[in-house]
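Input (structure):
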Protein backbone atom coordinates (compact mmCIF):
# COMPACT_ATOMS: atom_id res chain seq x y z
CA UNK A 1 0.00 0.00 0.00
CA UNK A 2 1.48 3.35 -0.93
CA UNK A 3 1.36 6.41 1.27
CA UNK A 4 -1.37 8.15 -0.76
CA UNK A 5 -3.75 5.17 -0.50
CA UNK A 6 -3.01 4.84 3.21
CA UNK A 7 -3.66 8.54 3.91
CA UNK A 8 -6.86 8.61 1.86
CA UNK A 9 -8.28 5.49 3.49
CA UNK A 10 -7.29 6.69 6.97
CA UNK A 11 -8.97 10.05 6.37
CA UNK A 12 -12.11 8.38 5.08
CA UNK A 13 -12.30 6.15 8.15
CA UNK A 14 -11.77 9.10 10.47
CA UNK A 15 -14.64 11.14 8.99
CA UNK A 16 -17.04 8.29 8.23
CA UNK A 17 -20.48 8.57 9.78
CA UNK A 18 -20.57 6.53 12.98
CA UNK A 19 -23.09 3.79 13.46
CA UNK A 20 -24.71 2.80 16.72
CA UNK A 21 -22.20 0.54 18.42
CA UNK A 22 -23.38 -0.30 21.94
CA UNK A 23 -23.29 -4.02 22.48
CA UNK A 24 -26.60 -5.79 23.05
CA UNK A 25 -28.75 -7.66 23.46
CA UNK A 26 -31.08 -5.13 25.01
CA UNK A 27 -34.46 -5.60 26.65
CA UNK A 28 -35.85 -2.67 24.66
CA UNK A 29 -35.12 -2.75 20.93
CA UNK A 30 -36.49 -0.57 18.16
CA UNK A 31 -35.82 -0.14 14.47
CA UNK A 32 -34.02 2.94 13.18
CA UNK A 33 -37.36 4.26 11.92
CA UNK A 34 -39.01 3.71 15.31
CA UNK A 35 -36.18 5.54 17.12
CA UNK A 36 -36.39 8.43 14.64
CA UNK A 37 -40.15 8.72 15.19
CA UNK A 38 -39.74 8.79 18.99
CA UNK A 39 -36.79 11.17 19.29
CA UNK A 40 -35.99 14.69 18.13
CA UNK A 41 -33.11 15.07 15.69
CA UNK A 42 -30.79 16.17 18.52
CA UNK A 43 -31.85 13.25 20.75
CA UNK A 44 -31.36 10.78 17.90
CA UNK A 45 -27.88 12.11 17.08
CA UNK A 46 -26.75 11.78 20.70
CA UNK A 47 -28.58 8.64 21.80
CA UNK A 48 -28.27 6.51 18.66
CA UNK A 49 -25.27 7.99 16.78
CA UNK A 50 -23.18 8.68 19.91
CA UNK A 51 -22.73 12.40 19.22
CA UNK A 52 -22.40 15.11 21.89
CA UNK A 53 -24.69 18.03 22.60
CA UNK A 54 -23.23 21.53 22.89
CA UNK A 55 -21.93 22.35 26.38
CA UNK A 56 -24.23 24.46 28.57
CA UNK A 57 -27.19 23.71 26.27
CA UNK A 58 -29.09 21.39 28.63
CA UNK A 59 -31.71 22.70 31.08
CA UNK A 60 -30.70 19.76 33.30
CA UNK A 61 -27.49 21.63 34.19
CA UNK A 62 -29.64 23.86 36.41
CA UNK A 63 -31.85 21.09 37.82
CA UNK A 64 -31.08 20.62 41.53
CA UNK A 65 -34.37 19.29 42.92
CA UNK A 66 -34.55 15.85 44.53
CA UNK A 67 -35.52 13.17 42.06
CA UNK A 68 -34.31 10.67 39.50
CA UNK A 69 -32.92 10.99 36.00
CA UNK A 70 -34.39 8.47 33.56
CA UNK A 71 -33.23 7.26 30.17
CA UNK A 72 -35.18 9.18 27.52
CA UNK A 73 -35.16 6.08 25.31
CA UNK A 74 -36.83 3.59 27.65
CA UNK A 75 -37.64 5.43 30.92
CA UNK A 76 -35.23 3.33 33.03
CA UNK A 77 -34.14 5.20 36.19
CA UNK A 78 -30.37 5.63 35.70
CA UNK A 79 -29.04 8.40 38.00
CA UNK A 80 -30.18 9.77 41.35
CA UNK A 81 -30.11 13.50 42.09
CA UNK A 82 -28.05 12.72 45.21
CA UNK A 83 -25.12 11.76 42.93
CA UNK A 84 -25.27 14.93 40.82
CA UNK A 85 -22.61 17.61 41.12
CA UNK A 86 -21.53 20.75 39.29
CA UNK A 87 -18.43 19.76 37.34
CA UNK A 88 -18.11 23.12 35.62
CA UNK A 89 -17.88 21.33 32.25
CA UNK A 90 -21.24 22.43 30.86
CA UNK A 91 -22.84 18.98 30.94
CA UNK A 92 -24.89 17.30 33.71
CA UNK A 93 -22.44 15.30 35.82
CA UNK A 94 -22.83 12.51 38.37
CA UNK A 95 -20.33 10.57 40.47
CA UNK A 96 -22.21 7.26 40.08
CA UNK A 97 -25.17 5.66 38.38
CA UNK A 98 -27.97 3.73 40.02
CA UNK A 99 -27.25 0.00 40.48
CA UNK A 100 -27.53 -2.08 37.28
CA UNK A 101 -28.58 0.97 35.23
CA UNK A 102 -25.71 1.48 32.77
CA UNK A 103 -23.17 -0.38 30.67
CA UNK A 104 -19.83 0.92 29.50
CA UNK A 105 -17.57 0.29 26.54
CA UNK A 106 -14.28 1.69 25.26
CA UNK A 107 -14.53 4.67 22.91
CA UNK A 108 -11.42 4.99 20.75
CA UNK A 109 -12.37 8.18 18.91
CA UNK A 110 -10.51 11.49 19.17
CA UNK A 111 -7.11 9.74 19.24
CA UNK A 112 -7.58 8.49 22.80
CA UNK A 113 -9.50 5.83 24.71
CA UNK A 114 -12.39 7.00 26.84
CA UNK A 115 -15.13 5.09 28.65
CA UNK A 116 -18.51 5.49 27.01
CA UNK A 117 -21.68 5.02 29.07
CA UNK A 118 -25.01 3.68 27.76
CA UNK A 119 -28.39 2.64 29.12
CA UNK A 120 -28.22 -1.05 29.96
CA UNK A 121 -31.85 -1.61 28.90
CA UNK A 122 -32.02 0.10 25.46
CA UNK A 123 -28.40 0.93 24.66
CA UNK A 124 -28.96 4.69 24.38
CA UNK A 125 -25.74 6.71 24.57
CA UNK A 126 -25.48 8.97 27.62
CA UNK A 127 -21.91 10.29 27.51
CA UNK A 128 -18.53 9.37 29.00
CA UNK A 129 -17.01 8.51 32.37
CA UNK A 130 -13.79 10.21 33.48
CA UNK A 131 -11.53 9.66 36.50
CA UNK A 132 -11.63 13.25 37.78
CA UNK A 133 -14.84 13.27 39.82
CA UNK A 134 -15.47 13.83 43.52
CA UNK A 135 -15.48 11.36 46.39
CA UNK A 136 -16.64 8.76 47.05
CA UNK A 137 -16.08 7.29 43.56
CA UNK A 138 -13.61 9.70 41.95
CA UNK A 139 -15.66 9.31 38.74
CA UNK A 140 -17.36 11.94 36.59
CA UNK A 141 -20.21 10.64 34.49
CA UNK A 142 -20.34 13.52 31.99
CA UNK A 143 -23.73 13.14 30.32
CA UNK A 144 -25.76 14.62 27.50
CA UNK A 145 -28.92 16.15 28.93
CA UNK A 146 -30.94 15.22 25.82
CA UNK A 147 -30.44 11.55 26.75
CA UNK A 148 -32.14 12.02 30.09
CA UNK A 149 -35.43 13.17 31.54
CA UNK A 150 -35.83 14.34 35.13
CA UNK A 151 -38.56 12.97 37.37
CA UNK A 152 -39.01 15.01 40.55
CA UNK A 153 -39.36 13.14 43.86
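Output (sequence):
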Amino acid sequence: MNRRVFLMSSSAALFAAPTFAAEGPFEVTRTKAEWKSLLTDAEYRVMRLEKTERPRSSPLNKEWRAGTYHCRGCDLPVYGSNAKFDSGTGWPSFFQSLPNAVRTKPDNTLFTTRTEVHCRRCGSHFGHIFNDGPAPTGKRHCLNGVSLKFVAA
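Notes: The chain has three helices and nine strands. The chain has one domain: 25-152.
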